[in-house]
């Protein structure tokens, strides 16, 4: 009986750990995607025209 309880707790702990890992990875990829979208939305800096006279 003691062994089955410890095994169940071990599996539960592993599942919780894997879930936390997935949430962490998901959060990181969401942040990365948001950063990429923000960078893509920003227009590139205008190149200075050569020989431009004000």
What does this structure look like?
- With 54 residues, the protein is mostly helical.
- The protein has one domain (1-40).
- The protein is 74% helix and 0% strand.
- The radius of gyration is 25 Å and the shape is rod-shaped.
- The model has no long low-confidence stretch (mean pLDDT 71).
Main pleated sheet: none
- Shape from CA axes? rod-shaped
- What's the SSE pattern? H
Low-confidence stretches: none
Number of helices: 1
Tell me the radius of gyration.
25 Å
Overall pLDDT = 71
Structural class: mainly alpha
The total count of strands amounts to: 0
Q: What percent of residues are in strands?
A: under 5%
Q: Gap between N and C termini, in Å?
A: 87 Å
Helix content: over 70%
Q: Work out the count of structural domains.
A: 1
SSE layout and pairings?
Layout: H1 2-41
Summarize the entry for a quick read.
The chain is built from one helix and no strands. It is mainly α.
Q: Which descriptors apply to this entry?
A:
54 residues, mainly alpha, rod-shaped
